[in-house]
Amino acid sequence: MERYIAVDNVCAWPNLTLMPDGRVIATIFNQPCHGHWEGDVECWESADGGRTWKLCGIPATHEPGTNRMNVAAGLAGNGDLIVIASGWSDRPPRGESRPGPKFGPNAQVLPSWVCRSSDGGRTWTHEQERFPAPEGDAGIVPFGKIIRQPPETLTIPGARVTHVCCTGDGGFTAEHVARCSLIPHVVEHPTDVIGRVDAVLIATDIGSEHVDRARPFIEAGVPVFIDKPLVESEEDLRTFIAWADAGRPFMSSSCMRYSKEFAPYRLSTHDLGKLRFVSITTCKSWERYAIHALEAIYPIMGPGFVSVRNSGGADRNIVHLKHRSGCDAVVAAISDMAGSFGCMSLCGTEGHAHCVFKDTFYAFRAQMEAFVAYLRTGIPPFPFAETVELMRVLIAGIRSREAGGREVPLSET
Are 284 and 265 in contact (CB under 8 A)? Predict the structure, then answer.
C-alpha cells in the first residue's frame, strides 16, 4: 500500500473535479480548524492520478473577520471551472480559537460567490450577486457537485415561463425568482398576467388559499396548474368539483405521481402478489405534505380508500388507511423527518419491495410535461376523480386527528 499526503495541515473537505485535460482539481478549505477561524477556498491540482498535488489557484479569498469554506464545484457547459463559495462571518484571525460553540450567535452565513476560471483553476473572476439568497435569509450554504445538465432537459419544447408574481410570506421576492430562473417579466398582481399568458401555475402548497388564488383565472377561462394539495376543506373541494363539472381547465398533483423510483410499481405489482400492507413517509405537516405520500401510493393501490384514522398530532401524524382491496396503508407525516422523505414499502403475499424517492428534478419535470400536454391536447393526464378521492383522504385525516383519532369513513367527506 502506498500512502500520500495530498495537502498537509488543512481541514480540506475536498471537492474533486476531473478536468478535460485529465488533471484532478481538489477545491478545499485551506485551514486546519473546521471553520473556526479565517481562511480561503483554494484549488489544488494533481496530474498523476492523485499521487502528488500543487496549489493551482485561489477561487475565493476571505474578507477580514470571515472565512470562505463551503463550496460546490464542477464544470460549466463551456468547460470553465465553477466554484460556488460561501462561508461564515464573525471569524477570529488565523490560529485563534474562541471558547464555546464554533458558530456563535453573531455568526452568519455569507452570501455565495460564483467563482469562474477559464484557465483550469489558475485565475478567477467573481460574481457576487449571481447567486442571491432568498429575501430575509443571510445566505445559502453550497455543497457537492455542480453537474452539467444537457440544455434540452432544462426546458420543455415550446413552453416558457414569461411572467412571475410572488405574494404572501414565502420569503422570496418575484425579482429574486426572476433572476434565478431567467423569467423576463415581473408583475405586481397575479391577475396582471390575464391576457398575456396561455396558462398559469399557482405554486403554493397552502390548500386553504387555492380557491381564492385560482378563481380569477378559472373565471377568465385561463388554464391553471395548482400545486398540491388542491384543498384542505370540503367546502373548497365542492367549489373545484363544480368548476370541473363546468368544464373549467385546471389540474393539481404532487410530483410524486411521476417519481422515477416508484414507476415500476405503478406499472405492475404482479411479482409481489396481492398487496397487503403499504407504508410511506413524509416530512412537514399533514395538511401540506401528506399529498406527496398519498399521491405516491395512489397509482399503485388504485382508487377505493374506505376509511382514515389519524392517531397522531399536528407535528406527528400516523395515519392508517383502509382500502377496499383489503390492503392497509400507513402514512407517517412527521414534521422534522426531512431525512426520511419518500421511503415507501410494499408488502404482498408473494414478495416485498422498498424504494426511496430521490430524483426530484425528474419528477417535477415530468409533472410539468404532463401539464403542458394537457394544455395542448385538452386531455387530462389522469381523471379528476382521483384528485377528489385524494383530497377526501387528506380531509378525513385532518378530521380524524381533531376527533382524537376516530376512524373517519371516506363517505363522511
Answer: no
Instruction: Give the full edge-to-edge strand order of the sheet including 224-227.
Output: 200-202, 224-227, 250-253
The verdict on 314 and 361 lying in the same domain is: yes
**Cell numbers linked to 15:** 471537492
Q: What is the mean predicted confidence (pLDDT) over 119-130?
A: 89
Q: How many domains does the chain have?
A: 3
* 34-64 pLDDT tens trace: 899 999 999 999 999 888 999 999 999 999 9
Range of the domain at 57: 12-147
The pLDDT tens digits for 69-89 are: 999 999 998 899 999 999 999
* Cis upstream peptide for 229 (omega within 30°): yes
Same domain, 271 and 395: yes
Beta-carbon contacts of residue 122 (< 8 Å; ≥ 6 apart):
56, 57
Give the number of other Cβ atoms within 10 Å of residue 10's Cβ. 17
Residue 70 amino acid letter? N
**CA atoms lying within 13 Å on the CB side of residue 357:** 28
Whether residue 103 is predicted with pLDDT greater than 80 in this model: the reply is no
Element (H, E) at 372: helix 360-377
Within a domain: residue 189?
yes
Q: Looking at residue 164, what is its pLDDT? A: 96
196 located within any domain: yes
Count other Cβ atoms within 10 Å, centred on residue 364.
12
Beta strands in 184-315 (DSSP E): 185-186, 200-202, 224-227, 250-253, 275-283, 305-310
